[in-house]
Amino acid sequence: MNYKPGKYKVANLKLAGEGSRLIQWAESRMPVLMALQKKYGKTKPFKGYRIAGCLHVTKETAVLVKTFVEAGAEVSWSGCNPLSTNDAVAAALAREGISIFAWHGMSVKEFYWCIEETLRFKPNLTLDDGADLIFTIHNRHPELSQKYVIGGTEETTTGVHRLRAMAADGALKYPVVAVNDAETKWDFDNVYGTGQSTLDGILRATSVLFAGKNVVVAGFGHCGRGVAMRAKGLGANVIVTEVKPTAALKATLEGYRVMTMDEAAPIGDIFVTATGVKDVIVKRHFRSMKNGAIVSNTGHYDCEVNLVELASLTRSKREVRPNNEEYTLVNGRKIFVLAQGRLVNLAAAEGHPSEVMDMSFANQFLSQLRLVTLHRAGKRLPNAVHDIPAEQDQEIALVKLNTQGIHIDRLSADQKQYIDDYSSGT
């Protein structure tokens, strides 16, 4: 383990060369973020500002970090999941002088130690995926929100939900922009990114055939919809479980079977939870699963699959493949759990493709820039969770289309007038 007090702690600095090559590949797939890097590398709008980030350390995240640094920011970073750090990427960032504290396989205690290390330089801005960094500031370092932090951003659904609850209780001490709720994030990253990367993780951990399998997807939000769509594309028979009537109805009209988890447990071959809620799969479900069932999670936290209750039914456990543990139950049946119940797309694969993270991280950059621009003008958003401007969504989507050589029509002046003319009738 390579450790430099107050600067970085990574698994192995010798992996930096491999990490640099991975980052260069991501850069070639992320034209929007690279355009921002080029544009703001000249004006350095973040000069004098310190950003603490807690987000999966992947090759795509490294491009975002380097974009902030190029734009003048001082950055300190940690991973937002114990199993999602790419050690080679972390080493490459450390070698480039980035303050980073992250390695694959850290304990929960080490996870929070890393967050604490990123706060040592008293950040002005926070960037979260799951809100653990924000919670740490509020619970353990309230002086930071009082004296230093001017705002933050949140990347994922789970974090946004929790932050909105904090804001509703009047407990949120600084403004946070909900990057997750941008259309160019949730309708692309969550759907297409999660869908593809989740199946990628399952395939790397199992090498099973999806065609003909009964794949049970818990939750039909944006992430679950993406998983269901990709599993169906590989020939699986997709079953959806839901608690929200409108989501269940959408799944039904898209051709999926909808039922309760109690009904799905005995017939499922592969299970994927994507709800953001704990105890989606519990003891009674494990008891009724068929021999050889595969269980995975693609929600932010590992509480969706109750592994404590599974352990109470288990007589032995062993790792049969990387990120694939075989639980032999007392009745002799076997259940295979992937990535220890954590994010299977990041723990067992590489996370979302660079092309979709390009838009998500462009939103992160521009949202952080919005906070800085307001601060320089002597202004600040209220202590609440804020949406990104609709114009930002459309700007990012248009740039993305342009980089792909795709052109779209534009409304004429007459058409714009017609849209707003309520008196024109039929």
CATH topology name of the largest domain, in short, is: Rossmann fold
How are the strands ordered across the major sheet? 1-2-5-4-3-6-7-8-17
- Structure class: alpha/beta
Proportion of residues in β-strands = 15-25%
Q: Which CATH-level-2 architecture of the largest domain?
A: 3-Layer(aba) Sandwich
The beta-strand count equals 17
Task: Explain this structure.
The chain has 426 residues and is of the alpha/beta class. It has two domains: 2-181 and 351-403, Adenosylhomocysteinase-like (Rossmann fold, 3-Layer(aba) Sandwich); 194-347, NAD(P)-binding Rossmann-like Domain (Rossmann fold, 3-Layer(aba) Sandwich). The chain has 18 helices and 17 strands. The strands form two sheets. A nine-stranded mixed β-sheet has the order 1-2-5-4-3-6-7-8-17, with helices on both faces. Strands 11-10-9-12-13-16-15-14 form an eight-stranded mixed β-sheet. α10 (222-233) links the parallel β9 (214-218) and β10. α1 crosses α4 (87-95), α9 (183-206) packs antiparallel against α16 and α16 (354-376) crosses α17.
